[in-house]
Specification:
Strand order of the largest sheet: 1-2-4-3
CATH superfamily: NADH Oxidase
Number of helices: 9
Bound molecules: flavin mononucleotide
CATH class: Alpha Beta
CATH topology: NADH Oxidase
Strand content: 5-15%
CATH architecture: 3-Layer(aba) Sandwich
């Protein structure tokens, strides 16, 4: 079993420590999250990388007590949804690339990354070709979970606790929070301070179980 050391070999950074110490939080205190922290966490999602920089994620930040109660109902009555001062609903938009491709190119031009019209046209036609023949539900999901993970890990490094959740009824979450039908509700992320003991570490498979070297199935040999 992969060992849960509190520090990673010689490389001790707040991120290593947070990755090793993070647990899915079982219950939250009501203490609010200062806006400055919450905004930094939300921006960490927006700073995530995505294919063609298309940023197909959309988030709903649920803070109001009444809204958290409604979300709890849609989330199989999981108490932590109502307890946590903030719950982020992470959604992916499989169609946003069609309307955002021009916007993304303009952004790149304004930022000085895309320097001429030829490059802009190359990106536009390349992205359009790729995405119109791709399963964009999977594509948008892939990108959004990177942004989601950045939020989760940054929150942990900032001294907060997190609870990722997929236990909810998507149709109910969409209805309660006016989320457009064509979006995918991927996961909830409760943020706050833990008010309940963590469950013991549940273990992880070994390097050699899941990681191959040079070809699939050849043990990596790092354990
Ligand atoms: C995307 C995702 C969805 C999850 N959904 C739920 C959930 O709905 N309810 C819950 O209690 N735990 C949920 N979990 C927590 C997992 O059970 C937990 O992460 C796993 O058992 C490993 O434990 P650890 O995170 O404490 O290391 C979810 C985790 C992830 C990453």
């Amino acid at each position: 079993m992969l060992e849960l050391r509190t520090s990673a070999n010689q490389q001790v950074t707040p991120l290593n420590v947070a990755i090793r110490k993070r647990r899915a939080t079982q219950g939250f205190k009501p203490d609010p999250i200062p806006d400055v922290l919450l905004n930094e966490i939300l921006e960490s999602a927006l700073l995530a990388p995505s294919g063609y920089n298309l940023q197909p994620w959309r988030f709903v930040v649920v803070k109001e007590e009444e809204a958290r109660k409604r979300l709890r109902k849609a989330a199989m009555n999981q108490a932590k949804v109502e307890e946590a001062p903030v719950v982020v609903i992470a959604c992916a938009d499989p169609n946003s690339w069609r309307k955002d491709i021009d916007r993304v190119i303009r952004l790149g031009q304004e930022a000085g990354q895309i320097e001429d019209e030829q490059t802009a046209e190359f990106i536009r036609s390349n992205a359009t070709k790729y995405l119109s023949s791709t399963d964009t539900r999977l594509w948008a999901t892939k990108q959004t979970m990177i942004a989601y993970t950045q939020m989760m890990l940054l929150a942990e490094t900032l001294g907060l606790d997190t609870a990722p959740m997929e236990g909810f009824f998507e149709d109910q979450v969409k209805k309660e929070f006016d989320i457009p039908e064509d979006l995918i509700v991927l996961a909830l992320l409760a943020l706050g301070k833990s008010g309940k003991a963590d469950r013991p570490f549940g273990g992880r498979f070994d390097l050699d179980d899941l990681i191959s070297l040079d070809k699939f199935g050849k043990p990596y040999g790092g354990s």
